[in-house]
UniProtKB/TrEMBL annotation:
<feature type="domain" description="ABC transporter">
    <location>
        <begin position="48"/>
        <end position="389"/>
    </location>
</feature>
<protein>
    <recommendedName>
        <fullName>ABC transporter domain-containing protein</fullName>
    </recommendedName>
</protein>
<dbReference type="InterPro" id="IPR050611">
    <property type="entry name" value="ABCF"/>
</dbReference>
<dbReference type="Pfam" id="PF00005">
    <property type="entry name" value="ABC_tran"/>
</dbReference>
<dbReference type="InterPro" id="IPR003593">
    <property type="entry name" value="AAA+_ATPase"/>
</dbReference>
<dbReference type="Pfam" id="PF12848">
    <property type="entry name" value="ABC_tran_Xtn"/>
</dbReference>
<dbReference type="InterPro" id="IPR003439">
    <property type="entry name" value="ABC_transporter-like_ATP-bd"/>
</dbReference>
<dbReference type="InterPro" id="IPR017871">
    <property type="entry name" value="ABC_transporter-like_CS"/>
</dbReference>
<keyword id="KW-0547">Nucleotide-binding</keyword>
<keyword id="KW-0067">ATP-binding</keyword>
<feature type="coiled-coil region">
    <location>
        <begin position="376"/>
        <end position="434"/>
    </location>
</feature>
<feature type="domain" description="ABC transporter">
    <location>
        <begin position="496"/>
        <end position="709"/>
    </location>
</feature>
<dbReference type="InterPro" id="IPR027417">
    <property type="entry name" value="P-loop_NTPase"/>
</dbReference>
<dbReference type="InterPro" id="IPR032781">
    <property type="entry name" value="ABC_tran_Xtn"/>
</dbReference>
<keyword id="KW-0677">Repeat</keyword>
<keyword id="KW-0175">Coiled coil</keyword>
Length: 737
């Protein structure tokens, strides 16, 4: 039993079943934990004992109850679950080894999706299990290597031993060796203390004995460290002087030039794959934005040698080149003999297609499915349909049997026919004791001695149809009447260039064009997709469309009655600065509440919770509500899926596909673009053989995908698939270089 305090404001309490016998050498890349319970409580409870711990568990929020956590070595798992089910809590409990049964020696690396704005404010680098203070002068490449390898700690130990060995003091080598041993024992003592404070019962007693033994070992080493020179025997001095030299040689092997060069080369390849140029690799960490800090943290995690790798929304802040590179990199890890076990949380359905197994957290339990997400969803829908049909058939059969039993009992008693009475009682016994499923979990015929062993009251379980999750539903309001036709937005040979101040002339000097010769028109009902890598000019084009920036040349015209809704990729950060609840000060509170409720922000969540306490996904919904309140004719959406979970992304995709207004979409999410812009639907829900969405409009929608590259816009006849294919070729060259 192991409650564990995670933070000063919240506590994660974990318990699980464990055997008392060490039956095999542990595989650090595997987890097989039964009876897992996780509770999150408010406030620290590390000093609570006995009944106080039980009370803390009863007062907290239960995340898992008697669940089974099973991870196979080298497998890739996609962790699914609605917002609030506890995905992040489970990942943190695994990474921090709060769960009893995770060996302390297991190497676990985690990228956590943290508040980037908070990281920028308090000077920390987000994305790891323990945020680290930034050294402003440390460069990106240096920070990645340091976080992944702890090279500075090895170098510090080398420096301590080198200074000791080169000193004129005859006992210098011995003193340096004992100092290092003492420091290492202090770290081991911390782990023993953590174990002893958090365990109870027989295991707690064993852990406290181990702690006492370690405390004695530390005290003995401290005595040795402080031992006067004249009390050290000559043979001990010679022996430990030799051991100091051996340890120094061992440490120097870890930082020998070939290994350092290999590590630096790997770090450079990873940073390049994630979009860092040579110039950005040499930038100080403190000068980076939150998005680039998250990429730095991701690079450090990927560089580590680890047994279990946990990535929480790793594709946020990556363009398609980085996403596809990361997909290929993680897939290539599976070819290694010591491939780490991978757990991924992501809203990008194309990205998590690299996972061969699904791990679902639902109803305080964990369930498993071998296969990718589309197969899982198809299997779940097929199973629900099959179970519904089976239940309906059994209910009809039961109704018929009950009528037959009642008729036979009535006729048997009237005619004193004991055969009919016995037959009726026999059938009633079958209904009472042997009614239910007639197939086992593998689909074969149910056998009592095989499928239901042990004491039981009935030989078969009731047919239970898994309750379908209430689908995420996003309702977009209808648009207002334009009164007369015409394009909503029109760009004619628009170009744009930034200006910079010339130091020599103290005047505005023209820079190269960021966009050149853009011609684009957007009509009612159009679906326009804009794709491109970072720096290609997508955000500049969007700002021109929404008139945040004026073109250097060319013309932009808008419909006189146009109502435009613009979602900026920085919308979440902007909302966090407001601070008030969503409906605070609303003129028509009832209507506002209705709109917020339709977008998943109901009740007190809309009226009482400050914006800074809302999750990223909730803030996205709020910003959408602010846009939709005006009932716009055109939505310009710049990376709208970044903070949403995959269910909400799917709901937004469906809502936008059938909306009557125009949509201009900038996104790196290929699945989302294919659905909204190209009108494709999932194989599970497809109504036609080619997967095309239904066109219910009077005229077919205009669906176009444009690619921006070096400020030039071209139409992609092959859609987002053509863009993906081109980026894939670049990734292959990058990985082979």
């Amino acid at each position: 039993m192991m409650p564990m305090e995670s933070e000063s404001v919240a506590t994660i309490l974990c318990t699980s079943k464990q055997t008392r016998f060490n039956i095999a050498t542990p595989n650090y890349r595997e987890l097989d934990i039964e009876g897992l319970n996780i509770v999150v409580t408010s406030g620290p409870h590390s000093t609570a004992k006995g009944k106080e711990k039980a009370k803390a568990r009863s007062d907290g929020t239960e995340i898992l109850s008697n669940a089974s956590l099973r991870l196979k070595a080298g497998q890739r798992y996609a962790l699914l679950g609605r917002n609030g089910t506890g995905k992040s809590t489970l990942l943190k409990a695994i990474a921090e080894k709060f769960i009893p049964g995770i060996p302390e020696e297991t190497r676990i690396a985690i990228l956590q999706q943290t508040q980037v704005s908070d990281a920028e404010a308090d000077g920390t680098l987000p994305g790891s299990s323990v945020s680290q203070t930034i050294r402003g002068d440390r460069l990106v490449s240096e920070e990645v290597i340091e976080r992944a390898t702890a090279r500075s700690e090895v170098q510090r130990e080398i420096q301590v031993l080198s200074n000791a060995i080169s000193s004129t003091d005859p006992c210098g080598s011995l003193r340096g060796l004992r100092q290092l041993r003492y420091q290492r024992l202090q770290k081991e003592l911390f782990l023993r203390d953590k174990d002893a404070r958090l365990r109870s019962g027989a295991r707690g007693l064993q852990a406290r004995k181990a702690l006492i033994a370690k405390e004695k070992e530390v005290a003995a080493m401290q005595s040795q460290r402080d031992q006067p020179d004249d009390e050290i025997p000559s043979e001990v001095l010679a022996k430990e002087t030799s051991e100091a030299a051996d340890l120094l040689a061992e440490l120097e092997l870890q930082v020998e030039p070939t290994k350092v060069a290999e590590t630096e080369s790997r770090a450079k390849r990873i940073l390049s794959g994630l979009g860092f140029s040579e110039e950005y690799m040499q930038k100080p960490i403190a000068s980076l934005s939150g998005g680039w800090r998250m990429r730095t943290a991701l690079a450090a995690v990927l560089l580590q040698e680890t047994d279990i790798l946990i990535l929480d929304e790793p594709t946020n802040f990556l363009d398609l080149l980085g996403i596809i590179w990361l997909q290929n990199h993680l897939s290539s890890l599976a070819e290694r003999d010591d491939a780490p076990t991978l757990i991924i949380v992501s809203h990008d359905r194309d990205f998590i297609s690299l996972c061969a197994d699904i791990l679902i957290i639902k109803d305080k339990g964990l369930t498993y499915f071998h296969g990718d997400l589309p197969v899982y969803e198809a299997s779940k829908a097929e199973k629900r349909l099959h179970m519904n049909k089976m239940k309906e058939a059994k209910e009809k059969q039961k109704e018929h049997m009950e009528k037959t039993i009642a008729r036979n009992m009535k006729e048997g008693r009237a005619k004193d026919d004991q055969n009919k009475i016995r037959q009726a009682k026999s059938r009633q016994k079958k209904l009472n004791d042997r009614w239910g499923l007639e197939v086992n979990s593998q689909g074969g015929r149910f056998k009592l001695n095989r499928d239901l062993v042990g004491y039981h009251l009935t030989s078969r379980a009731e047919i239970e149809v898994e309750e379908e999750d209430r689908p995420v539903s996003l309702v977009l309001p209808t648009t207002t009447d334009l009164r007369f036709p015409g394009p909503l937005l029109s760009l004619e040979q628009v170009s744009f260039r930034y200006t910079s101040l010339s130091k020599a002339r103290k005047a505005a000097a023209p820079s190269p064009f960021a966009l050149g010769g853009i011609t684009l028109s957007v009509h009612m009902g159009d679906r326009i997709g804009i794709v491109g890598l970072n720096g290609s000019g997508k955000s500049t084009l969007v700002k021109l469309l929404v008139e945040e920036t004026k073109p250097t040349s060319g013309t932009l015209t808008t419909h006189p009655r146009l109502k435009l809704g613009y979602y900026s990729q920085h919308a979440v950060d902007d909302l966090r600065r407001l601070g008030n609840p969503p409906v605070a000060g609303a003129l028509d509170e009832g209507a506002v509440r209705g709109l917020l409720g339709s977008l998943g922000l109901p009740g007190r969540l809309a009226s009482d919770v400050p914006l800074r306490k809302l999750s990223g996904g909730q803030l996205v919904r709020l910003q959408l509500a602010r846009l939709l309140w005006r009932r716009p004719h055109c939505l310009v959406l710049d990376e709208v899926t970044t903070h949403l979970d995959y269910e909400t992304v799917a709901a937004l995709r469906d809502a936008l596909r059938g909306w009557e207004g125009a949509v201009v979409l900038v996104s790196h999410d290929r699945w989302f673009v294919r659905g909204v812009v190209e009108g494709l639907v999932d194989d599970v829900n497809a109504n036609s053989e080619n997967g095309e969405g239904d066109e219910d409009e009077e005229r077919p929608r205009r669906r176009v995908v444009y690619r921006l590259r070096a400020g030039q816009m071209t139409e992609l006849k092959g859609g987002v698939g053509e863009f993906e294919e081109g980026v894939g070729k670049r990734v292959r060259k990058l990985m082979n270089s």
